[in-house]
Amino acid sequence: MGEFIKLIVAIVNELHDIVIGIMNGMGFSVTDKDLHFWVIGLMGMGGFVVVQFLFRLLSKWSITAISFIYTITVLLVIVFAIEIQQKITGRGNMEFADAVVGLQGFVVLFLVYLAIRLLVMGVKRLHKPNTNKNTRSR
Question: What does pTM read for this prediction?
Answer without folding.
Answer: 0.65
